[in-house]
Amino acid sequence: MTTLLATAACNLDSDILNACYPLFAEERVQAIEWSFDVLFNRNVLPPWFEELLHAYSQAKRLTGHGVFFSLFSGKWLPEQAQWLETLRATTKRFPLEQVTEHFGFMTGKDFHAGAPLTIPYSATTLRIGRDRLRRIQDAAQCPVGLENLAFAYTSDDVKRHGYFLHDLIEPVNGFIILDLHNVYCQLENFGIDANELLALYPLHKVREIHISGGSWEPVACDRDRRIRRDTHDDAVPAEVFSLLEMAIDRCAECKYVVLEQVGSGLKTPASRQQFYNDFLQMEKVLQQKNKSRHGNSQNNFLPLHVLNTNPPPEDEFLFQQQRELSRILESDIPYNEAVTVLRRSSLANSVWNIENWNPAMLETAMQIARKWKGE
Fold first, then answer.
1. Helix (H, G, I), strand (E, B), or coil: what is residue 124?
2. Per residue in 199-224, pLDDT tens?
3. From CA 204, how far away is CA 201, in angstroms rounded?
4. What is the domain range of residue 67?
């Protein structure tokens, strides 16, 4: 089994860096996960941050985590082509051990900004997703992976997610980030047993695990219910640490275990101390687990094939459905009106299966899309 590395998600954010500083000073951070595309519009980095990235890159302990590529957009967009070219230049400047992206497509008119939301699991989205992963792999020249999504519209989507992830990554010998707070969201929002859900993921393909915190959000359509959201703005719940203990022995290829939190949740001394405590608790778990992990990795997750030169596959109807859904979710219309508009849309009686969407999850999708639109 691969040795587990205690990793921090560290970006050019003063609150995150202040929280990470004591951990760097004590030489506890064994690897860094860097959301590289957040800085794509910055041509110049502060010298001290550049030195930090170079130090971890030279030690082969720097990983890249993308946010804005929008893997499943039905149309191949200029922003995606530019994203790949910038990634290619970034990996030459800071060689990365791996590159990962979020599952789903981004809402918003250009699909290069907005909220990451799920897509129908179909032959069309599978073909598009596989092609885009190959292009990321070609640009980065390193292992490529996808993170499981926290959001779903139905329990059937939750249970099919792991299989679909496996089918996506298999042709490129890719891997999975198992985000355990995302798993926790699914357990809470759909009442699924943890062992049952973990068994539905290809855990032999997990190369990285995320832990983080989140929040509870009320929904107007069900006054007695709260939805667990993956907002990354609070401490790691005890339930997520329990999931870490449960899952980690089943993930023989796992190498990086990453503590994530956004800067908005790290503005007070108390929150930064809690981040420190969470890292130490994670570190303690990994140290204990490493005592019983022996042998080398059986999969290096390196590319199996070179990228062909065929044009990127597209689906104009899927693209128009995504745009229509984005407009509905991001609009300021009330929930009940959104339901009516959705039922009259091109998504009705389609592979999107909107007729079976959980009302609370649809309302949550509206909250997510509108929040991202305002950022």
1. helix
2. 999 999 999 999 999 999 999 988 88
3. 9
4. 5-314
